[in-house]
Amino acid sequence: MRATALWVSLSFIGCVPPAGWSGAGWTTASASPPAPVVPANWPGAERPPAPGPHLPVVVHRGGGRIVAGEPDDATRWISYTLKTTGYAEATIPAFEGTDAEWVGMMSCARAQYAGLPVDLLEQPPASGDYVLMVVGGSAADMGTTGMWGWASTGEQAVVERGVGFVFSADHHPRDRTIALCESLSHEIGHLLGLAHSEDCSDLMSVSSACGNRDYEHGALRTFTETSRAILARSLAAWGAMSQLSEPERISGVVGDATSGLSPHVLPIETSQGYRQLPVVLDAPKPLARALLRVVTPQGYRGEYHCLPEPDASCRVEGNHLAGSYPVGEERGTWHILVEAYYADGEMRRSSWYSATN
Predict the structure, then answer these.
(1) Mapping DSSP to helix (H, G, I), strand (E, B) and coil, where does residue 293 land?
(2) Using CA atoms, how far apart are residues 330 and 347, in angstroms rounded to an integer?
(3) How far from chain centre, in Å, is Cα 317?
């Protein structure tokens, strides 16, 4: 378990073929698998669009190189789930299916999320964050077996910049389009905050008690109302956070331009062999202590205490604060805020300030 940039508990879930699936569908020995089902209107597609900010979900079919790391970063193709395998990187092959299967899968998955503030895209948006689903290859490409999909999972909250996978080459049921649609919708569900369900009618179920699931006759599972309610709540929380600035969204701390605090964030310097971000502040009244809140270029948050002690690397004395935040070798834009605790018991926060190196 760990915390993402939205500070939600996160795990990863590998999704096996639905419990009880007999494998009776077509296999590599089949001479002519059935044509994919591409109905004009999937169930649920009639729901009206949701208001408010929409979370982009980029569904990628072209394959590519995934790098192990923590946390997920869809924009840089960094995957926490891959890290758990011990692999440093993996190359996922492109989607091997037909264009008709791809169109059917995408239209079906869009119907599954109709009425929710989610946009399934095939290209990244011009700006802003998104989550990523890579569709292609086999579980073996990531050093595992027996899974149709895999994704990081937030606990009823969106995994910011989350990354998930659908191993399309491992899908061999009678109706591949239905199976791919369910796998894609299921893994996106994990990225949006859904865990597995024990309800056999729910798309998030993989329970062994649910019996055979052979994907015949176009039967399609959907989200239960319980799961849709969780999705609506997690997406609403994401929407509210998406309206904040980057450091506020990542840290959960909102700056206050009316606080009367105007710290000077100086250029990053090297002192005694260490790279540091110097901060100086003259507060309107005596300080008891202070806290430097920082968001790093990689999207991590940090805190650094400023104390009324002569040897403190960040020191407060009277109304004055002077100190440095250690930045190491990390390059990019740093965001910093001063949280001032006054001698009279009041606490105020400055606005967020930025420094780039």
Answers:
(1) strand
(2) 30
(3) 42
User: What is the tally of structural domains in the chain?
Assistant: 2
C-alpha 225/C-alpha 188 separation (Å) is: 17
Is residue 230 included in any domain, yes or no?
yes
Burial of 257 (0-12, 13-18, 19+ CB in 10 A): exposed
Check which CATH number belongs to the domain holding 62 and give it: 3.40.390.10
Distances (CA, A) of 357 to 119, 201, 265, 269: 35, 52, 12, 10
> What pLDDT digit, counting tens, does each position of 282-296 carry?
999 999 999 999 999
Segment 132-150, tens digit of pLDDT: 999 999 999 999 988 999 9
Residue type, 27: T
Q: Which residue range forms the structural domain that includes residue 93?
A: 2-243
Whether 92 and 210 map to the same domain: the answer is yes
**In this structure, are 210 and 273 located in the same domain?**
no
pLDDT tens string 212-240: 666 665 578 899 999 999 999 999 999 98
Same domain, residue pair 199 and 270: no
Q: Which residues of the chain have pLDDT under 50?
A: 1-11, 19-38
- What is the rounded distance in angstroms from the CA atom of residue 129 to the CA atom of residue 343? 41
Q: What is the DSSP string of 193-252?
A: T---BS-TTBTTB--GGG------TT---B--HHHHHHHHHHHHHHHHHHTS-HHHHHHS
